[in-house]
Amino acid sequence: MLNQKTINVIGAGLAGSEACYQLLKLGYNVNLYEMKPNKFSPAHKNVNFAELVCSNSLKSNDVTSACGLLKEELRKLDSLVISVADQVKVPAGSALAVDREKFSELITQKLKSYTNLNVINAEVTSLDLSMPTIVATGPLTSEGLVKSLQELFNQEYLYFFDAIAPIVSYDGIDFNSAFVADRYDKGTGDYINCPLNKEEYETFYNALITAESVQLKDFENSKVFEGCMPVEVLAKRGVDALRFGPLKPVGLTDPKTGRYPYACVQLRRETNNLDMFNMVGFQTNLTFKEQERVFKLIPALKNAEFLRYGVMHRNTFINAPTVLNKFFQVKTNPNIFVAGQLSGVEGYVESIAGGMVCALNMHKYLCGEPLIDFTNQTMIGALQNYIATAPAKHFQPMGSNMGLLANSGERIKDKKLKYKKLSDTALSKLNEIISENLK
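Now predict its structure.
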């Protein structure tokens, strides 16, 4: 009877941590396999669980936005990870950004407080198919496990590259060339803005597009994920590409001129202390030396101290429609579930949702009960539907978006009203699902 009471969770990232919490609450003994601190991926450095390796932002908290709706759904389902994020949030306007160190630390402490958790610090290179298992090793799954999964699923692995933005010290910001404000004044002055005039922008732009990048041996431009595109790659699409992207000036009035700047770089807090700031949208694959040279051409950052340089890394995901059903369950091995970005969802909150779905449905599976379909009226269910039904031939990771939700057919021209109706419908439907399946 051991297999009915003990579940293996592989990977202690966002999805794995959420899955563990849900299973521990239900009384299962959980073997949590995490290769840190014995082995780190190229992007990880924190020994704690749920490490955020890219941005510290979990995107918008507005419930009428896709990611805001997804977070609210997870709150209703008692998500540990979102609860901790709410506890350790840092000012970021309408977004939910967190102190990443406190975030990981608190999640680790909470999970380790359960006596039915057994943490095993070891790399897993193959699965015990006789054990109920949630694979949540994320987009940086180790090479050994990748090969094993490739054989199990009998498919070529897919991948894309994404990148991390630099973090600079508050003390190195020149406030003679910067101002504090939120776009359209939506917030409490949470962003530091670094404006550039036309001449300054063109100097920066020309340096950026000619700067030296790190050469990745298997890099392909076609496999750069759009949501994490390096700033230098985006810049090469045209001289104004950045001004319509991460350097867009709209909604930011420079108090020195009373007008929008020609271009503007935004900095967002990494912690509640005024010490570390993330360069918003500045994911990069430039060499460290070139990051110093080029980014210091931004007037407010001429004396910048880089606390972390940007880096690029390869992310792995499976061809979900050929492998998984809509419950994130492996079709050929139903006691195996795949959670998080490895399954083909994209984003922090989406990974948390995947961990939630896998844990709740693992419980249902072991109890011999019907698995939970959150339906594509909810954002969680819409992600379920995507990974199971998207065209397999050109499958790519997908983040939450309002276009995934089922539409009632009612034509509403006003986007805000339309999204509010979709959001209201989603939360109402989720309440029904909780009442029917989780009480």
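Residues 69 and 80 are 17 Å apart (CA to CA).
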